[in-house]
Sequence to fold (380 residues):
Amino acid sequence: MHTFWTLARPFSIVVAMLAAGCTNGDESTLQVTGTIEGTTIGVGSRVGGRIAEVGVKEGDKVTAAQVLVKLECGEQEAALNAANAKLAQAQATLERLETGARPEELAQAKAAAETADAAYMMALNGARSEEIAAARAMAEAAKAQLDTAASDYDRIKKLREGAAVSQQAYDTALHKFEAAQNQHKASREQLDMLVTGTRNEQIAMAKADRDRAAAAYDLLKNGTRKEDIDAARGARDAAQAEVLRAQTIFNEMTVKSPRDAVVESFDMHPGDLIQAGPVLQLTDPNDLKLVVYVSAIALGHLQLGEEVTFTTDAHGSETFKGKISYIAPSGEFTPRNLQTQEERVHQVFGIKVAFDSHGGKLRPGMAATVRVPLDVPPPQ
Fold:
């Protein structure tokens, strides 16, 4: 922002301005001279980086939201994508907890619980009589097969000792005998387990399985606890905040004009590294001001919002209109120590006259003379 006025202006300049108001031949009008200034805006990025594209040059007219500079943004884009993915996951978790289990999930959990309960009851109560009978029949059949295989093996063994049969016939008989032994052993163990009953550790394991399946079914049936939903909602909100932060940083990689303006100064090229902060200066041609100084006595005839006219050196006698938008709350003194009434004439106050470019005719840097109407003639 430009300073409204300089606190230490040379005495000769102030005198010249005041003298102009007294020598124009019209004591009801005060004339003071100043220079037109524009509102300057420093535009840049809050994060900095490497310049990828430059869209303007000094002197260009730009519009609001026009892209001025683009910075390389691969890293910031990746961070934004990751934040969006995390948000989607958190949102899905929250919706699943709020909605509850689907019908097919409930049916599946119920079936698993019933199966686990049946297995536990079987382990707890032992085998039924028909199961024991079936196991005993299988054991007896295995014993009959074993007796037959043993008899065949003994016969083939004796014949082999007399070289009456081949080695292959002997080996086959031996394998059948060993297989019958294993089958008989397994069937006896199965029968013994059914007759004796299930061991305590097997019952405990079956009970634990039953309890887990029942708990899972109850959880689905009764729905998620409020504290779990609140925790999921908090995770979703945190993910949303992370997306907002990542989006903000990503947006900073594109520098845009905040308003219609003219590029005043800019000297950057693609590949340059810039730090966070302004990288170019814009001037709004339609937000102009003229800072001039009037005596303390003349100040009493002025008020905020009052319309004044002025001319410029560039446009000769053509007059333009503006309004007083600011009056300094304190004065400047020349000389510094005022002792007499005559010296107090040199006390001056800065005023600011605001206006637009009047169709582009007025530009920053032009010299202008303001004519301020006075109710009474200023003191001599």
The first strand starts at residue 29 and ends at 45. The radius of gyration is 50 Å.
